């Protein structure tokens, strides 16, 4: 039999640091489970190339999600050259992953969870740096991140 | 009246608090998995042996909450592990459970999307623990 070599499939999620922080492991694990169990998220994941920082203000910890079109590398802390950076308290970060996805793949901001997230934006307790020009990226990340 | 931490009486009062909570009832609709809390030993805090809290939760109510061994809790669908003093911090509102998990102070095993979907229910569950008056072994 011809010794054809199969190209190893890269892991869905990898960690840049030898010891990923608990927050990095949790976000990486959440995205991996979401993507591997939901075909609609695989499409978004496969098409997304962006570096997204998430900083949790009340525990003073952040991660950078480096989406590379079907592959994600999670870094401890905020790495340079981020397209978007989301800063919020722990509860709000969890609520972001509970946003429902509605028509045309848009996050739903009119139910209880969505209104809560929108209120945090207005109160500037949720800050998104780099939003200008990256709204589509934010929506894609939200869809990948959402467990709903 | 205060009950001994992680005793059978504590488990009964905790269960009663969960079942009294309308917030939990609505937030945990659809939940159908067991949850185990592993309380690791801290002999220097007068908590010499690990214990396990097994919570049989179903569709917004607690069918049963019992205290047994750590191994009992580890057999549950979701397992949260922390030393005794961390659990005490959670029950006395010194540590927010969500923050604790993100910081790795409470270690979670189980399907992450499911637990994140029920964030509100788990927050209310934590609130229920804070409503049970407790005698802590390191305060005697």
Main attributes?
heterodimer, A: 148 residues, alpha/beta, six-stranded mixed sheet, 6 strands, globular, B: 140 residues, five-stranded mixed sheet, two-stranded parallel sheet, 7 helices
Describe what you observe in this structure.
The complex is a heterodimer of chains A (148) and B (140). With 148 residues, chain A is of the alpha/beta class. Chain A is 36% helix and 22% strand. In chain A, strand 3 (61-68) and strand 4 form a beta hairpin. In chain A, helix 1 (22-37) crosses helix 2 (39-47) and helix 2 (39-47) runs antiparallel to helix 5. Chain B is of the alpha/beta class. Chain B has seven helices and seven strands. Chain B has helices spanning 8-20, 22-27, 70-74, 84-91, 97-102, 112-117, 119-130, and strands at residues 3-4, 34-40, 51-58, 61-68, 78-83, 107-109, 134-135. In chain B, a hairpin with a 2-residue loop joins strand 3 (51-58) and strand 4 (61-68). The longest helix of chain B is centred in the N-terminal third of the chain and has 13 residues, at 8-20. The radius of gyration of chain B is 14 Å and the shape is globular. Classes of the chains: A alpha/beta (148), B alpha/beta (140).
